[in-house]
Predict the structure.
Amino acid sequence: MYDIAQVRKDFPILNRMVNNVPLVYLDNAATSQKPASVIAALVDYYEQYNANVHRGAHTLAMEATMAYEEAREKVAAFINAPSPENIVFVRNTTEAINLVAHTWAAERVGAGDRIVTTEMEHHSNLVPWQHVARTNDAELRLMAVGPDYTLDLSDLDELLSPSTRLVALTHMSNVLGTITPVKEITEAAHRVGARVLVDAAQSVPHMPVDVQEMGCDFMAFSGHKMAGPTGIGGLYISPDVIDEVEPFLRGGEMVLEVTYESATWNRPPMKFEAGTPNIADAIALGAAVDYLSGLGMEQVREHEIALTGYALERFHELEDVETYGPTDLSVRGGVVSFYMSGIHPHDISQVLDSFGVAIRAGHHCAMPLVRSKLHVPATARASFYLYNTEQEVDVLISALRQTMEYFGDADARQAR
Ligand code: PLP
């Protein structure tokens, strides 16, 4: 296990005071903090070798191209992609999913076909499929969330019909922390000839992820949730499907030959990266991958399992607080969504901020799940990362106790 005190020193922002108390950052599912090495990679690019990639023969252009493509190699190795060719740099998970929706799915999901997703998706992995289903006259079906907050696979065989073209599912819920059995679902989907897209926005930052072991066809993730900068993310496209995917954006760099009448496409991944890419942030994502690999993703996962177990124990000491998500820590990530009867989650979040504690309140871009499965308008959510500590959980719990005292007991709160 890594030295947490040492790790915390790598993140300059963790020294910050908020409202005259030390920051306790527990909003990592929204975005993670960045180590100094990632910030330095950004500065180094702009100070030393800022140039466009794949175009120039001068020194700076070659250095930038090398660093950009090295970052792609690092990302590929991090998720065990067969080749860097299978990694497309995009802005974020949302863009990665939309790329697949607007290209592969737009062309290959036809009238009467079926797309299967789940009841626990982030809007990013639901709304694009609603659009494809509507425009292509296809059917959108949902895998249910069971009472233990895991996916109910009992009707998987019925959902995976011969007309199922795509299964799009999250690897880890950003509301419940549920880790889904993607490998099992992928195998079942492939048996009926369906493709599988995995939304790995919450898994790639927090646990070892191996796309070949998982067997998925597409996987989407965001750099900013994995200690990298905003504005950069990845789409993994498997060798089995990559030739079925048409370009999303058309323009410079993605072409091989252009005449006034027509054009032919460059090889992947260039085929999917029209225009000047986000060079600096891709290079800094490479630095984030180096940082995470240095710690070891098994260790990161182990740390978060221990911390989540501790947090749940401490949460259960609080009366009138409901937590959501699986109790089995082997299928749960470091996310604790909770609801205190009679106190709106936004009020909790605001009061916690006065104690320096940053959490998220709302529907977490999973409105249907929160409203129709958890039956609350919103939840508060504490989410952990590799640098959080048990002492920070203690600060959270103590701040929550004081929040409850401030708002009065449950009866008084309900009466208000
Ligand atoms: N999917 C999940 C499970 C998420 O948690 C998020 C962000 O919170 C997203 C998708 C969207 O990520 P981004 O906003 O980086 O595109």
About this structure: Residues 144 and 152 are 5 Å apart (CA to CA). The radius of gyration is 22 Å. The longest helix spans residues 59-78.
